[in-house]
Amino acid sequence: xxxxxxxxxxxxxxxxxxxxxxxxxxxxxxxxxxxxxxxxxxxxxxxxxxxxxxxxxxxxxxxxxxxxxxxxxxxxxxxxxxxxxxxxxxxxxxxxxxxxxxxxxxxxxxxxxxxxxxxxxxxxxxxxxxxxxxxxxxxxxxxxxxxxxxxxxxxxxxxxxxxxxxxxxxxxxxxxxxxxxxxxxxxxxxxxxxxxxxxxxxxxxxxxxxxxxxxxxxxxxxxxxxxxxxxxxxxxxxxxxxxxxxxxxxxxxxxxxxxxxxxxxxxxxxxxxxxxxxxxxxxxxxxxxxxxxxxxxxxxxxxxxxxxxxxxxxxxxxxxxxxxxxxxxxxxxxxxxxxxx
Length: 341
Ligand code: NAP
Ligand code: 3JM
Fold this sequence. Notes:
Blueprint: E1 3-8, H1 13-24, E2 29-36, E3 44-47, E4 51-57, E5 68-71, H2 75-87, E6 91-94, E7 125-127, H3 131-147, E8 149-158, H4 164-180, H5 211-223, E9 229-236, E10 243-251, H6 257-266, E11 270-272, H7 284-287, E12 293-300, E13 307-314, H8 318-335
Parallel strand pairs: 1-2, 1-5, 2-4, 5-6, 6-7, 8-9, 11-12
Antiparallel strand pairs: 3-4, 8-10, 10-13, 12-13
Helix pairs in contact: 1-8, 3-5, 3-6, 3-8
The protein binds NADP nicotinamide-adenine-dinucleotide phosphate and 3-(2-carboxyethyl)benzene-1,2-dicarboxylic acid.
């Protein structure tokens, strides 16, 4: 016996990773349905090594009898279908930003605030945070417990897979075009992404920050502690998969590098690789297909009292999206859903 699961956005970068993760972790499944737009009806998607699923249309799908929906088809799609699925009795674990800041929707990273899942019943929706927020709060949590975070200043180096399949295609095609001297086509990114870096992810806000930067600020406060001050700069770089972050932290109390390293090494979901030598740190390419959040370059910030720097890397499609959502589903069925698997 298992659960009836639906994956919305099953043909996308995150959706395909959701199917892989559910299969790899042997989530207890009775029936699984792959949903996407009308355009994908007739296509199949892989589920594990052996199985293929026929893609069905989200717009005509009846969620009655579905236990859990894992969704990643953009904010507008979630705004429309998630309340419909929730009303039909399914719990929706949503990967988009649409419901994250709704006070009646828990925003969950299982290593950080698993208890928040208990509030899922208010709307039958649980939100998965932004990829950059997830990997940062997993690394911040043990340090906040140790010495009390006052302020975080983060700069991100985000891969193009965060902008979907089309973002990956654009980096590939532009890179090729540079080599063969073809004109560069641009659609997903606001400037050339091949051999470049773009300090602009999601739309601009009134105060000059971007929405991606705003998400990191407000989501970190909601998940970890509203008292922590956060300043973020989010940059798209020509990397296919894996986000990196340079994180500067100021604490209430003194904290040594050794104490920080010990707390991080003991923390769930974190792997410390920090040898202060060639190859003694993790880069995005090495994080691909891995579940962990990697922390390297832990060092004192000599310009400020009680301050440290670190480098945080993770696979944005795994812990940054699909894995975190599946971990939420695992915690939900283990602790909260009535139906026994
Ligand atoms: P993607 O590769 O472009 O895939 C988009 C998916 O959404 C496809 O399966 C697509 O189906 C489906 N879709 C689009 N419009 C639809 C509609 N009207 N009805 C049903 N399905 C529709 O994008 P991605 O990288 O997987 O990201 C998808 C979404 O996940 C993003 O928009 C974002 O909101 C969220 N996301 C969240 C995180 C996170 O949680 N941390 C990280 C990255 C992305 P077709 O193939 O049929 O078009
Ligand atoms: C990551 O609604 C959309 O067009 C999707 C925009 C998007 C988001 C988002 O805001 O949900 C693309 C990539 C995210 C995210 O995780 O915040």
